[in-house]
Automatic annotation (TrEMBL):
Belongs to the PqqC family. Residues 24-234 form the Thiaminase-2/PQQC domain. This is Pyrroloquinoline-quinone synthase. Its EC number is 1.3.3.11.
Length: 360
């Protein structure tokens, strides 16, 4: 094949590399083309994406996860000996599990549910970008149609995945308040599975790429696979970051989500009580918007305009004062009746709590 990004060093392709040189050449491909370098991953790991952009990533990547065992079954079907099949079939078990509710696909569904998706919507693959589908399908076709050496070499991106997984998990946990360790449980197992799989595949490639042509084919296969991963992120970036052109049938923010549970309540119908101590949740803050010359309440992905009364109340919401104390302070400032103010601000604060921009 013609590599999309030809690997430099054409003289090296003329001669037979030692197994160590071949490994170094393969690692060099990853160092230059692996998807850890993609701007979308940088934004994801550095906490620069909105919750909807993280959702778009989780949804699209589900298709990759779902098709990996299809790809591995295609490869398995072509393996001529039982010993190799025994080893390779473990990959299918890792993703599909041994029983209902087990395996990597299931754990990815948990991740998607963890960021708000309804399970059935994810399973339907309805909102997935066509470009995601095309590149993942291209990987399955490649593995089905190319030589066994190329098919196995194309899985070698897994050599590079433990580093990106560690970076991703640490970065996402640190930077997003909607991501928990349980949500990212998918990656725990990959940290041992990926090196085991990559060691086997690398050993196979080093032993079977016995001519310069075969070594070149293995390198091209790995390059191809890097482009499979890269183009998925290009598509996400184009649709959901910049310029933000979401194709007609792809997921639109808001679709396929489970309704967010109402704010935890103590009083009747979730109403705040005078003794409650309100505070702004993590990630929510009041700001003065210079351009619009007004105060706003900034929450992840949402902004609420605030009138003067709301600004006066929220300035006193500090996680220490109760509603009654806030009413008392306002009554003194404005020389008004504390009971009347308390009744008014209970309505206002209850409304904010129901919008999940206030906690008690
Ligand atoms: O999180 C990642 O960045 C990442 C990368 C890759 C990869 O490099 O192909 C895989 C995975 N994860 C993964 O979870 C996975 O199951 C997997 C299977 C394969 C493969 O080619 O057979 N790659 C990957």
């Amino acid at each position: 094949m013609n590599a999309a990004f030809p690997t430099p060093g054409t003289d090296a392709s003329q001669r037979l590399l030692s197994p160590e040189e071949l490994e170094a050449a393969l690692r060099d491909i990853g160092a230059r083309r692996y998807h850890n370098l993609h701007p979308f991953h940088r934004l994801l790991h550095d906490g620069k994406l909105s919750k909807d952009q993280v959702r778009a990533w989780a949804l699209n990547r589900y298709y990759y996860q779902a098709m990996i065992p299809v790809k591995d079954a295609a490869l398995l079907a072509r393996l001529p000996d039982a010993a190799l099949r025994r080893i390779w079939r473990q990959r299918i078990v890792d993703h599909d599990g041994d029983h209902e509710g087990d395996g990597g696909i299931e754990r990815w569904l948990k991740l998607a549910e963890g960021v708000g998706f309804a399970r059935d919507y994810v399973l339907s693959t309805k909102g997935i970008l066509s470009a995601t589908r095309f590149s993942v399908d291209a990987y399955v076709h490649f593995v089905s149609e190319r030589s066994l050496l190329e098919a196995i070499a194309s899985s070698l991106t897994e050599m590079f995945s433990p580093t990106i997984i560690s970076e991703r998990v640490a970065g996402m946990l640190k930077n997003y308040d909607f991501i928990t360790k349980e949500t990212l449980a998918y990656f725990d197992k990959r940290l041992t599975q990926a090196p085991r799989d990559a060691d086997f595949a690398l050993d196979y490639v080093k032993r079977h790429a016995t001519t310069p042509e075969l070594q070149r084919a293995a390198m091209d296969a790995l390059t191809f696979k890097c482009t499979v991963l890269w183009t998925q992120l290009d598509a996400l970036y184009f649709a959901y970051v910049a310029p933000g052109m979401i194709p007609p049938d792809a997921w639109q923010p808001g679709e396929g989500l489970v309704a967010e549970p109402a704010a935890p309540t103590t009083g009747p119908a979730g109403a705040l009580q005078a003794s409650d101590v309100p505070r702004l949740p993590r990630g929510v803050r009041m700001r003065f918007d210079q351009a619009r010359d007004k105060h706003v309440l900034l929450a992840p992905e949402r902004t609420f305009d605030l009138d003067d009364n709301a600004v006066a109340v929220l300035s006193l919401v500090d996680g220490a004062r109760s509603v009654a104390q806030i009413a008392q302070a306002l009554a003194e400032t404005y020389a008004a009746d504390a009971a009347v103010i308390e009744a008014d601000i209970l309505v206002m604060l209850t409304d904010l709590a129901q919008k999940r921009v206030l906690e008690r």
